[in-house]
């Protein structure tokens, strides 16, 4: 693996991870414990994760960019006593070649990733080693990848695509190219990294890929080594994907919620799919270890061609939410003797058996790969002293893609600065409204619901 001027071989990684695992065990970490991982984009990321797993613990990503209040909540709810990257470094521990490490089973916990919660309280999704292994065993054979491939790790470990980004190359003998902070936020620098490192497998959300595509065009479309571009996190931009590929790269669209372990579907975007004439948002078919049924509000399967909520079953479905039995029972349900996760996402099964993604059944959205409950942001806004009421919507921008707009009914002495500051203290960066629109009142429909069409013209 490489990051900037640093690199590690597989032997280096094994030694560093075992040393960290030994230190965690020395500090009392036991099999099944939860350990925080608070590291920035660096070689430390895979060492911290692998060392935590080797110790028998599961890791909980704690992004340093998140507000202190949110990090404190996650740390307290998960009962975290040790944080790699905070109270102990990921690397630099004495070698431990003979340390006695626990043997793990597929049912052991691997990680807990916190996602947005509609009540203003984030929820931690618990994923096992078996969940991850089932993904790798089912999905990797769909790709022609091996030791000569170089994968990027672009995404934060708070976004579960990072799981596929890291383990994809490591279990196939490839090279992991960790994207440093400069390249992560600069399309030109990211393009340069892809070219100089001869990256062959690149995972990206469509909004960021659009900026990379524009940088590639402005640079004169220099030759690259990409073999696969894998989209996830948002509806794919078919026009941009087609213009970039020109038949040179295999474009793959994969859909999946955190609760079913990264990905649930696979679709090769061939020329017909890129035209989008019969399927405007193609997500393909369920991965081999999963099944997807489309159901109505009562859980009854709908006929092909009708719109229904995606219910996912199979080896990737997680055990539920940490410390949230009621929410787990609501979202993870058993029908016909099979346990399913109710995604809240709508789709239609077309005549060829493939799925067309049609958006959310509620007000949860995906933005730049992160799943966001708009209600959580509204709860924070309404808790601000200078705000009487608020509604958050997603707006579409021509250049940067979708962004969040907060429609705010002001209290006395309203000023946007303190409201922004309060949101920054309580919400992670991807959940911060990009703009605030002051309105005298939240418009309502005759039935008493928020009139979102009226808000859009405010």
Automatic annotation (TrEMBL):
Organism superkingdom: Bacteria
Pfam families (alphabetical): AMP-binding, AMP-binding_C
Cellular component terms (Gene Ontology): cytosol
The AMP-dependent synthetase/ligase domain, residue ranges: 2-322
Residues covered by the AMP-binding enzyme C-terminal domain: 376-449
Entry's Gene Ontology BP terms: amino acid activation for nonribosomal peptide biosynthetic process; secondary metabolite biosynthetic process
Protein name listed in UniProt: Nonribosomal peptide synthetase DhbF
Species annotation: Asanoa ishikariensis
């Amino acid at each position: 693996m490489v990051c900037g001027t640093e690199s590690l071989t597989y032997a280096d990684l094994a030694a560093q991870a075992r040393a960290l695992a030994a230190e965690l065990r020395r500090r009392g970490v036991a099999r099944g414990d939860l350990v925080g991982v608070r590291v920035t984009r660096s070689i430390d990321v895979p060492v911290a994760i692998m060392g935590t797993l080797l110790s028998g613990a599961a890791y909980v990503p704690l992004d340093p960019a998140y507000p202190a209040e949110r990090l404190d909540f996650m740390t307290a709810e998960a009962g975290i006593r040790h944080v790699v990257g905070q109270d102990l470094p990921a690397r630099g521990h004495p070698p431990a070649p003979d340390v006695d490490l626990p043997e793990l089973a597929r049912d052991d916990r691997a990680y807990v990733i916190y996602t947005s919660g509609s009540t203003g309280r984030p929820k931690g999704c618990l994923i096992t080693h078996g969940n991850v292994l089932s993904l790798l065993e089912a999905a990797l054979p769909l790709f022609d990848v091996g030791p000569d491939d170089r994968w990027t790790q672009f995404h934060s470990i708070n976004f579960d695509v990072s799981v596929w980004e890291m383990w994809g190359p490591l279990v196939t003998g490839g090279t992991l190219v960790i994207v440093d902070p400069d390249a992560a936020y600069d399309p030109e620098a990211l393009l340069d990294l892809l070219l100089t490192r001869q990256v062959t497998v690149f995972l990206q959300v469509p909004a960021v890929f659009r900026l990379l595509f524009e940088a590639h065009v402005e640079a004169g479309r220099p030759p690259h080594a990409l073999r696969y571009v894998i989209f996830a996190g948002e509806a794919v931009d078919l026009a941009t994907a087609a213009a970039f590929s020109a038949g040179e790269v295999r474009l793959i669209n994969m859909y999946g919620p955190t609760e079913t372990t990264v990905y649930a579907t696979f679709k090769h975007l061939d020329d017909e799919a890129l035209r989008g004439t019969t399927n405007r948002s193609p997500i393909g078919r369920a991965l081999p270890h999963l099944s997807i049924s489309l159901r109505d509000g009562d859980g009854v399967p709908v006929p092909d061609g009708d719109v229904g909520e995606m219910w996912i079953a199979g080896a990737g479905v997680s055990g539920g939410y940490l410390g949230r039995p009621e929410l787990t029972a609501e979202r993870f349900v058993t029908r016909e003797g099979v346990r399913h996760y109710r995604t809240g996402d709508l789709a239609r099964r077309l005549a060829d058996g493939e799925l067309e993604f049609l958006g959310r059944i509620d007000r949860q959205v995906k933005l730049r790969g992160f799943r966001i409950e708009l209600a959580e942001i509204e709860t924070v806004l309404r808790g601000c002293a200078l705000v009487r009421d608020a509604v958050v919507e997603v707006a579409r921008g021509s250049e940067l893609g979708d962004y969040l707009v907060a429609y705010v009914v002001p209290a006395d002495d309203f000023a946007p600065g303190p409201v922004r500051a309060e949101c920054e203290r309580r919400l992670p960066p991807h959940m911060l409204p990009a703009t605030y629109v002051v309105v005298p009142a939240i418009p309502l429909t005759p039935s008493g619901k928020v009139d979102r069409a009226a808000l859009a013209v405010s």
